[in-house]
Amino acid sequence: MPLSWVVEDPKEKNIYWPSEEMKKRAWVNDPKIYEEASKDRVAFWEKLASEGLEWFRRWDKTYEWNPPYVRWFVGGKINASYNAVDRHVRQGKGNKRAVIWIPEPPNEPVRVLTYNDLFLQVNKFANALRKLGVKKGDRVGIYLPMIPELYPTILACARLGAPHTVVFSAFAPQALRVRLEDAEAKVLVTCDGYYRRGKCVNLKSNADEAVKGTCVEKVVVVRRAGNEVKMQEGRDVWWHEVTEEAGGWCQPEEMDSEDLLFLLYTSGTTGKPKGVMHTTGGYLTQAYWTAKWVFDLHDDDVFWCTSDIGWVTGHTYACYGPLLNNSTLLIYEGAPDYPAPDRWWEIIEKQRVTIFYTAPTAIRMFVRFGEEWVKKHDLSSLRLLGTVGEPIDRETWLWYFKVVGGGRCPITDTWWQTETGGTLIMSLPGIGPFIPTVAGRPFPGTELTIVDEDGNPTDSGYLVQVPPLAPGMLRGLYKADEKYRETYWAKFDYRYYFPSDGAVRALYGCIRVTGRVDDVMKVSGHRLSTAEVEDVINAHEAVTESAVVSKPHEVKGETPVAYVVLRKGVSPSPELEKELKSLVREKIGPTATPERILFVPDLPKTRSGKIMRRILKSLLINAPIGDTSTLFNPEVVEILKERVGYSG
Ligand code: ATP
Ligand code: MG
User: What are the two backbone dihedrals, phi and then psi, of residue 342, each rounded to the nearest 5 degrees?
Assistant: First the structure.
């Protein structure tokens, strides 16, 4: 627990407020909104749902709370693709740019999809999917990089009422397979290849390996890179072929507000990823309004959220949120530093990006490259910056503010999770304040607070959400109800939603989120469960058991380190270390590869047999070890101290 954090830092000189211009322009600029919304939070969201979205049928009941199960807008009928595309086209706003796509190869042309283009492609691809046998309720896997076809693909699923489950394109086949199996996906949409640091990544061959033995019946392949791929007769079809043949109108399904819109897998702490369930009406309401108010989207904005679609940030702010608002969003296919460390700044300059939303890990990387790369470009189009994914340190925040934002743009530090569907804690750009390392206040109409172990209010402790829950909250974990109850609800006796993060009170009623209190790492912005990595290492015949913990890393945020216990008779060797590292790389992906493998005789355990990761972590970062008397094998700690060179 982060109990030692300072409650507020009176030395903080860098407290910013919105400029008059920002205030005048912003959708919300009066702090009274917080008070007003809190008077009747259900009524507040009810109003937002009616004003922000077009419903086929109005709901009968606004909010239903049956702890720990929540339902919003019960009985309402709605369709996500209709709201993201059709209604703009009907209102004569179809010529507006919806998606600006920047390919990685600098000489390839930029592609633009207008809302009209999107409308046609969504309808056609929905018809194509239907012809491939996809019905309302069927799950569709999406394993695509950041390319334009992503949008008609996602929205076509929503049009048919077929929940999509997007899997990060840099995941290895095994990680994809686990998710496809759990979701029981019927169809997978992927592509031939894409560019990353100048190389063509053959995604189709990964997909081929992953779908073997799963219930995937059809694989739809987008032609992106034109690389050679094997198409399996009877199973594989080309995206452009099935789309060309299909009709241009597909009636959107009237989905129940509480029908599943998508499943998105987190890394999970038990090794098996959790399938977070998001339903339609509530998620769309929160996506629409948080996109509009937090990023202050106006008609002339170009919004670049750099998150990959494989993460929830990509879902809500590089897809649903901006599209529901008839905004222009920008996506980029490749690596941030390719062909040079100023690629991102060049894109912002050329495309006149106005709102830029990224992760601390990316900013830290650019800090290392040096500000001269930023200074080469005219970033005067920017008016608002955002950050998400992990706590941002003070130096990085100030660099982002001064070097990228020219001291002119507010930074909205948004706290949220896959589970929350949309941002929940932030400073609204027209209200502020903007303080380094401080996220802000709960979004109007939501209540998040800080409690101690017993659930009593405190200034430094566990972050919790107090019901009524925000409408975009998860409705459960797919096929893992017990886990849903345990992970988020049991700790505080079903009174509060517990996100597993710690927090402290900061100035002006703001909250500073101090980070997770569980066992998950965040490497270069990617969520990784220590257990998933351990599973792979443990599967090696030479290994008895292992424990993976993370240690802070200057650029990546965190990096995994593995403690490995070998089978009797097997001796440690550099070869074995290499073998284990490449096993992880191959099974999960390069970001998961441990920085170090420490061969050790044993692991510290509790009496109930649980590995004490807390101690393993303290050993690595030279932090106090604390009490070891409750351990089953305290003597092993002394051995490990020597092994890692502990000096704390
Ligand atoms: P899993 O749930 O599988 O363990 P994860 O929690 O890393 O994975 P996400 O939902 O992508 O998956 O990340 C949400 C977490 O990221 C939050 O719970 C919090 O720990 C951290 N986080 C996100 N935004 C912020 C922020 N602005 N400030 C501090 N921490 C943040
Ligand atoms: Mg989490």
Answer: -110, 20
